[in-house]
Amino acid sequence: MEFQERITQHFVDSIETKQQSVMELAPQIEQASASMVNALLNGGKILSCGNGGSAGDSQHFSSELLNRFERERPSLPAIALTTDSSTVTSIANDYSYNEVFSKQIRALGNEGDVLLAISTSGNSANVVQAIQAAHDRGMRVVALTGKDGGDMASLYQPDDIEIRVPSAVTARIQEVHLVVIHCLCDLIDWQLFGPLED
Ligand SMILES: O=C(CO)[C@@H](O)[C@H](O)[C@H](O)[C@H](O)COP(=O)(O)O
Ligand SMILES: [Zn+2]
C-alpha cells in the first residue's frame, strides 16, 4: 500500500504542478511559439540542447518538427545538438564538456535561428555556453527552466523567452517541459498550416 500511495502522490504532484504552470506560463508559451514560427517563416531553423532527461526532450522536440506531430505537413527544420556522439565526445575530450553545444552552435547557428535551451536548474554550464554562442550568432533563445532559473537567468536578451516551471523538483519540471514542448509543436502547426482537420 505504501508504494501505491507513493504512486498516487507522484500523479497528484504532477497534476498540481501542471495546473500552476498553465496559469503562470501560457503567455510565455504563446510568445515562444511565435518566435519559432517567425524563424521558420524566414528560412531559419531551431537548434535544441539539454542534458540527461532534457537531452531526450530536445530530441523529442526536433523529431516532432522534422518528422510530424499530429498531422500530415512538410518537414520543419530542427537539429538536436545532443545526438552526434562523435562530435559530442570529441569536443568533450579535446576541449571541455561545457563546450559540446556551443561549438556546434558556432558552426550551425545563423542569424534568425532559435535555440531551444532546456535545463531544469538553469545551471548546466554547457547550456549556459550554448546561450552565449546563440547570442553571438544573432539567434533568439527560448529557454525551458525551473527552480530559480539558475545561471541562465541573467543571460536573456529582450527577444528571448524564458518558460520557468514553478517547481523545485526536477522530475516535476521535466514533466511540465514535455507538455510545453507539445504545446509548441501544436501552436507552430496551427500558425503555419491552420486548424487541424478531423
Ligand atoms: O532526468 C533526470 C532527472 O529526472 C536527469 O537525467 C537529469 O536530466 C540530469 O541529472 C541533468 O544533468 C540535469 O541537468 P539540468 O536539468 O539541471 O540542466
Ligand atoms: Zn528524469
UniProtKB/TrEMBL annotation:
GO molecular function: carbohydrate derivative binding; D-sedoheptulose 7-phosphate isomerase activity; zinc ion binding
Gene assigned in the entry: gmhA
GO terms of biological process kind: carbohydrate metabolic process; D-glycero-D-manno-heptose 7-phosphate biosynthetic process
Sequence similarity: Belongs to the SIS family. GmhA subfamily.
Subunit: Homotetramer.
Positions with a binding annotation for substrate: 51-53, 64, 93-94, 119-121, 124, 174
Record-linked PANTHER family: DNAA INITIATOR-ASSOCIATING PROTEIN DIAA (PTHR30390:SF6), SEDOHEPTULOSE 7-PHOSPHATE ISOMERASE / DNAA INITIATOR-ASSOCIATING FACTOR FOR REPLICATION INITIATION (PTHR30390)
Name of the protein: Phosphoheptose isomerase
Gene3D superfamilies: Glucose-6-phosphate isomerase like protein, domain 1
